[in-house]
Amino acid sequence: MPTPKPSKSAQQKPAQAEGAAALTADLVTWFRKEGKDYPWRRTHDPYAVLVSEIMLQQTQIATVLDRGFYARWMEKFPNFQTLAAASESEVLGAWQGLGYYRRARNLHKLAQVIVSDHGGLFPRDPEVIRSLPGIGPYTAGAISSFAFGLAEPIVDGNIARVLSRLDNDATPVDSTPGIKRLWDRAKELVQATEDPRALNSALMELGQTICKPAKPVCDACPVHHHCLADEPETLPVKGARPEITEVTERVFFLRTGQGILLEQETGSRRTGLWKLPALPEEFSVKPPSVLLKTTYGITRYKVTLWVHEVPGKPTQTWPESHRLIPLDELSALPMPSPYRRALERLLASSGEFRLE
DNA sequence: AATGCGGGGTT
DNA sequence: AACCCAGCATT
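ok -> structure tokens follow
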């Protein structure tokens, strides 16, 4: 009956299914011993879990914790009711510096939906959770498992890496079939454990601390003996990155005795955020003199930001979207970091003013 | 399937 | 400079 042990990559799927119980047991044991202590792991309050998950979307734990975003938010808006009752500017102000401000607006909206449509109680049904604003497959699974202990799968960047290595699976993790396989596998695992909460946390934390993108510490891995990866560092496979496009952006700087002129975005993106006002199109052929030139990256763009002197006559009236902001109100205003940095440099070089 | 959304950290 | 990070929504 015994046959020669096949090479790792040739092993078949059934072995994985049978190993799910053993694999998850080892992960949970490891996590109970080594798992880190985060504020959102000390509670099962859906609101507290939700806030952490939204803040952590595409944002590293250290950013959320070390700069005090989570603690300040929970102090200012301790529950759905207080958040729902807050104004949008209060909400955006509390999010200032975290980026992806759409998350804050969705969270605000979500709180209002909970109060108005769910009697102030967060729903327990994963499908209902998934339908709330700003909540996708990952966050729905995270809240279902972390807050309610339900056996719902999650796949984030960490887990995609861990699972593709465990199964030695080179299907691109950002392709439709790759995504499906990851979620199927994550579901299989979470249904094989009696502690979905610990299992989901363990998978993420394994990816964060052991099964790292580069130089994974396989010697320290609690599930090394379950892992089929031949060359862990070559996984996961991802599709090509979009090409970087260079973009020019021109704004201007006006300071009066009443403050700095800023423009509030009103379009479909960056709505509600403040920025240095755009240089009107008619001035872009022969722009006023340059006060500052800087570059920043945003998604697939490399933006060269030029800050110019005031175009035209400074006595003109400005559109509804523009406002003179007193200096002492600047720091609480939600403003994308590139503009904030530029503004700080402009004010510093003027010598007499400082932000904060 | 692609793209926009921001920012910061690591290598 | 490239890559990564507790993703989601829109098109």
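The radius of gyration of chain A is 25 Å.
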